[in-house]
Design goal:
- Two copies of one chain form a homodimer.
- In chain A, the strands form four sheets. The first copy, chain A, has a seven-stranded antiparallel β-sheet with strand order 15-12-14-13-17-18-16, with helices on both faces. Chain A has a five-stranded antiparallel β-sheet with strand order 5-6-10-8-9. A four-stranded mixed β-sheet of chain A has the order 1-2-4-3, sandwiched between helices.
- In chain A, helix 1 packs antiparallel against helix 3 (62-75), helix 9 packs across helix 11 (293-309) and helix 9 runs antiparallel to helix 14 (359-373).
- Chain A is globular and about 65 Å long.
- The longest helix of chain A has 20 residues, at 399-418.
- By secondary structure, chain A is α+β, with helices and mostly antiparallel strands.
- The model of chain A has no long low-confidence stretch (mean pLDDT 94).
- Helix content of chain A is 38%, strand content 20%.
- In chain A, a hairpin with a 4-residue loop joins strand 17 (379-382) and strand 18 (387-394).
- The interface between A and B is large, with 85 and 85 residues.
């Protein structure tokens, strides 16, 4: 998407320039105001128009963040945290200008306590980097969105991904964060104990706050032991409903599946083309089981039975790592595979999550809606959580098309809400879902606003995100 | 303990009486001001002196709670939520007087969505009542503190218990709450989806807030499937260190133990006497495994090997339900068994939680401290979480003894904090741990205070709890 710089409410330009000048004097090259830097930091994987910050500050440690926040707080200049820019709802945009705090240089793994299955990392560490680092410990970091996102960003959007059905989301694995609050001081939200009742759960408050309450400077994470055995498999279905029903039964039976991913026919077609695969172009489930040799075999057999019962074709499973990795690489490329269906078009990746019993119904109605609108829009989902994505490919230069897409996402969100679900399972709110979250949360939005105002009275932290 | 009525800061008596009069007029018998009612509602399982409310309001539905809060908000009268009164740190005391809102009549299971493994209950439903209700569904509510606490109270103190090592704490199983906030309106913090990124995690903010931010009027809970097979066993050890080492290895090996409880020699002695058992009066581990027949057998065998390696004697396990229930009944009576060691004495049950690798060290040092002080103080713990309790039996009429006990709990908390742990794993803060939590949380207490002030500017909700 082209770079547009559409600010909704620019703040006082003079104050912003003063703050930048002070930071430049103190930090020199760590502060950049060139167009290229500013563009890069507003450019996220989103359909929303880019809104450029006035400057970019490359923080190298928590002390840098504290200083930058202190200066920005004094001049009431917006502070927008930036990890890798892989968020999908405009979380890194700067609608009121300000300074993007890029934490990608804060990329140290600070400690690994293998004997306690935890570690502490700086926010710029990416999930792949962390798993490389952990390779020899027998442990891994299980949260696995498609992108190689930063841990700070993943915490801030309450990310999850393919493994969440077994290992939880960032809400579950973040034990504690340190964060710089509006007074420029750093707080620690908890210790390393597995559980605590010591006051308000500030850890969970910062997880999912999308940088609106402070800047995360380190994250303590619970890790998982690498399973003795991993088995995976694929199963094609005639219809989406059959595939969803197999997911529902798997969850209801309590099979501790580690991953259970749904691809609709269009997404399978996209992945076949993009990753050189040859699956039948009908709905597909990709599954993975973690455990002992016996247990993964048993889980695979049980799933196979369920799949057959639901109309699945030729379920096969394998413990062969190479074959498995090829499959999951294709799954992780689903977004780019989808985009490649129509590289000339813009895209919007939306996500909803419903109680598992409503998954088939929600996906089915959504696909009918897609057909009715003649959208090119593959569906892919972390079906075990009741969570699925629609990647809408459309002409984002056409106001009519944009309006049609927005109406579609509104209908999708309303459908999920009517089923007891949420308008976003893992992408977060950013700018794109503010109006939907306002509907979903009702009076709770007032409570969120009150908290925001109490902790950030001058609204310097990532203004214009989550709610208005 | 005798009833003392020691208010720290009584509020305006006239306003309180006005509010009570208005509520009496509107609600008649639902409002009680007799001494017996007031005493009962200040009397919790705590060492702290009782501080009586001025009246008790028996709410029967959310509408009642809204009305009561509206009246109390208008007259700035404290509102103290009351479930079953089983909290341990003075959470139900009324240091500034006010009205105790008893939710025990709000005891309806509102819905069970068996196909989604969730349910919604009123706050006065107790955990045993819920499990009775669920009996025929194949599901159970896994959070299991000793007392038959109310779900509202368990949510408010972020309770856990013996199953937490496998099934998590209230933080993990509460999907959503409805709560009446300071404006007398009811908010809903989330839907029923298994995960959501829709704004701030208000669910987790209310879980553990101890009623200081609002009154919980319903709780949506994630349930677990009743395991196909349950096996349990006991193993005696010569020393606490050996027993702790067996726990540490079990967790580090990733054995998905459902319960792993530690009793020191004194606690075993107490349980033998109270529950008519005949265990060797040395440190003991009680374990339980959930899964398929094969898997519980394998887990039991693996644990047996670890126990032997660590010096355990004669580990035996059984899938016999009657024998198992007898054991766990004894475990759940541990508190009363401890009290029965010296019924003439007062008691203080304290709890800390440390990273699992430090468990042996922390328990060992604590026992040395107990010996040095010649305290009668059994230790019992949810060892798999690194969480343990000390039940101090002491003359609570002696200021010197009280001071010695307070010094001990301070040393215990400091020991846990120095190891990266917390001063309370599951009892919460109430009045008793405010000073310790202030040390533990440092600057984060300021953030908690700001949130409290934003959501409850007149400090009507459970004043004097969690922090000053």
């Amino acid at each position: 998407m082209a770079i547009d710089d559409v600010r909704t409410q620019p703040r006082d330009a003079e104050s912003t320039q003063k703050a930048i000048a002070i930071l430049k004097q103190q930090f020199g090259e760590k502060v950049q105001t060139g167009e290229a830097f500013r563009e890069q930091h507003a450019h996220s994987t989103t359909y929303l128009p880019a809104q450029l910050p006035d400057g970019v500050f490359f923080a190298e440690n928590a002390e840098d963040v504290k200083q930058a926040v202190k200066v920005c707080a004094e001049y009431k200049v917006p502070v927008i945290p930036f990890g890798t820019g892989s968020s999908l709802e405009g979380q890194v945009n700067a609608p009121e200008g300000g300074i993007s705090i890029d934490v990608s240089r804060m990329d140290q793994v600070l400690e690994v306590n293998a004997e306690d299955l935890d570690c502490r990392v700086e926010p710029g560490v990416t999930r792949e980097q962390l798993n490389d680092y952990l390779r020899d410990t027998g442990l891994f970091f299980p949260i696995d969105p498609g992108a190689n996102a930063s841990i700070g960003g993943m915490a801030s959007t309450r990310a999850s991904g393919t493994n969440a059905v077994r290992y939880g989301t960032m809400k579950d694995v973040v034990l504690s964060v340190t964060a710089v609050t509006a007074d420029g001081e750093e707080i620690t939200t908890a210790g390393r104990a597995r559980k605590s009742s010591a006051g308000y759960d500030l850890t969970r408050l910062f997880v999912g706050a999308e940088g609106t309450l402070g800047i995360i400077t380190s994250v303590t994470l619970r890790l998982a032991g690498i399973p003795e055995k991993i088995a995976g498999g694929v199963c094609s279905f005639e219809t989406l409903e059959e595939a969803c029903n197999a997911v529902i039964m798997t969850i209801q039976m309590g099979i501790p599946v580690a991953r259970i991913e749904l691809l609709d026919a269009m997404q399978v077609k996209a992945c076949n083309a993009y990753s050189n695969l040859s699956f039948a172009e009908t709905p597909l489930l990709l599954v993975e089981f973690h455990g002992t040799e016996d247990s993964v075999a048993m889980q695979s057999e049980m799933f196979g039975e369920i799949a057959r019962e639901c109309g699945g074709k030729d379920f096969t499973w394998t413990a062969n790592a190479e074959e498995r990795n090829r499959l999951w690489k294709a799954r992780h490329s689903a977004y780019w595979a989808g985009r490649a269906l129509a590289p000339e078009l813009g895209s919007l990746s939306t996500d909803v999550c419903v109680p598992i019993s409503r998954l088939a119904e929600c996906v089915n109605e959504t696909q009918k809606d897609i057909e009715k609108e003649s959208f090119l829009a593959p569906i892919v989902g972390h079906a075990g959580d009741g969570n699925f994505h629609v990647l809408l490919l459309f002409n984002d230069k056409s106001p009519e098309e944009i309006a049609r897409v927005e109406d579609f996402t509104t209908r999708l969100a309303e459908r999920a809400l009517a089923m007891g679900g949420t308008c976003t399972g893992e992408h977060g709110v950013g700018q794109g879902k503010k109006r939907l979250v306002a509907v979903e949360m009702g009076g709770s939005i007032g409570v969120m606003r009150a908290i925001k105002k109490a902790l950030d009275p001058d609204n310097i932290f990532n203004p214009g995100k989550v709610f208005d």
